[in-house]
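---------- Forwarded message ----------

FYI, see the Cartilage intermediate layer protein 2 record below. Original note from H. follows.
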Amino acid sequence: MYPGEICPIPIGIEAQTVSGQPASNVFQVYDPLQGFVCVNGACPDYRVRFTCPASFCGTSMYILIYSPSLCYTNLFCLYCKFAVFFLFYFFLYSSECVTRWFDSDNPNTNGGDSELLTTLLGLYPGYICPNPLGIEAQTTSGLSASQTGNVFQVYNPTIGFSCVNANQGGGFCADYKVRFTCPEDWCSNCGTPWFDRDNPQGGDYETLPLILIAYPLQVCAQPIAIEVTTITGTPVLPTGSGITVYDPLQGFVCVNGACPDYRVRFTCPASFCGTKCVTRWFDSDNPNTNGGDSELLTTLLGLYPGYICPNPLGIEAQTTSGLSASQTGNVFQVYNPTIGFSCVNANQGGGICADYKVRFTCPEDWCSKCRTPWFDRDDPSGVGDYETLPLILIAYPLQVCAQPIAIEVTTITGTPVLPNGSGITVYDPLQGFVCVNGACPDYRVRFTCPASFCGTKCVTRWFDSDNPNTNGGDSELLTTLLGLYPGYICPNPLGIEAQTTSGLSASQTGNVFQVTPWFDQEDPTGPGDNEKLPLILIAYPLQVCAQPIAIEVTTITGTPVLPSGNQFPVYDPLQGFECENEPQSGWICQDYKVRYKCPQSFCNISVLSNVSSEVKNITVNY
């Protein structure tokens, strides 16, 4: 009747009449482990309260020399009574969380319904604390156990719950589910931050689906417990007024017009708090086809084999222009790492879905299959900490792949960093990491590469096909070298290293290198793949010059593409690249990416006079 409000093993009991008159202890039952019973026909109406161990209520604000504090359950642990009868009103709750519901049995088997703790711990390892503080039972339809009329054999958090059919006077037990309250040390093993995404006008909705959208990658999709307080920190139990949802798999809802403002946090499986990495962005659909935009995990796993873990821990969705999904006003059919993302046009109230891209967080076992060392090539002095992939490729040649599939970031002391951190402007395996806040700590990054990068590989001879006195600089482009040295270079290199002809590392020369990032602004749906320069200038402003002097094209997996055949009607640095499908001949375009070499004038853009030349080099790569 009062789940979670009484400890399972009280150490004291007090009985009063409802008018407040103390009761003597001469009764049929007056025992903290059993309760109170008066069998005299003239018994008045009594009320009881119990004394519980201090661990059930929390820790007081001060340590006194008296015996340990004891708390009264009917006052919700707001004050404690010491053995010497001093009252101490400044009492703090211990943090407790509430698990999900569990239903392992039904009344048609084994002569009743038993939800015993030992059984549930075995069936759901890691999902229930081994030492619950409280238990609540309801029927599977949501009716409180106290309202069913059933008699219970066991209703205790240390043992669990049991209803035996034979004890029901000819009836049967209902089908029950149970949940537990757990202590702080268990709740905090893998706890999220506090979330307060709604205000109580019309009710306070802190539901898990909306929190997953508003705080991407910060909470697991399948929490194992939930904790709720007011924003001032007062703990809230599921029995509070107006509370209609209080469940780790659903979140929290209060619909009473007088609801205060609440906040919630979740306990996640330990795997969620382990080492994890963030994938690149994926965009396989657009809202003009199929009635909306769906980026479903099964589809993406098929389109990008090896680039996404099969069991993501988190998902984030943005529009292709970079706007957070939570800011678009769209309604989402699916937003879940185990399924993916879906926005249906018909659900938008007359509008249509934006065009979305998604990325995932993946667990340690996947991230570590082909992982680089940690890189810390910059310090956070000046404008920030720039751990960008182009500069890491120069500073650490052959140690990182050119097309990583995931990135992991921590401070140099090892504290994990997620993309939502303050000052973080770049967090992408294809670009690296940038923090531009003046208060940035010192970061380090490492990448997960395709499995082929970690396999057996060989290093070619050095090639020098150009010199800086011709063509306005020195270009050693792969397509050129493949033509000059047929059979001497693989068509799909895993890494590149550049030195001066005298042997000085490229990173030590102070030169600025003028190749843009890779661009992939279209997928090969419809007539083909259009990567023309005018479209790229719009899609990626300030990242490519208007008059490139060279172009390089590969498939998105890195296979070089040469300008041959009728399928590539455009292959020109001033125009870009285009591939046309030819269904009659069976030719279907792959998905391509392009990058350009720009004039020196494009790279020497104006920067603050006190910015180092190294930061200038960073600037020109973006």
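H. also flagged this: The mean pLDDT is 83.
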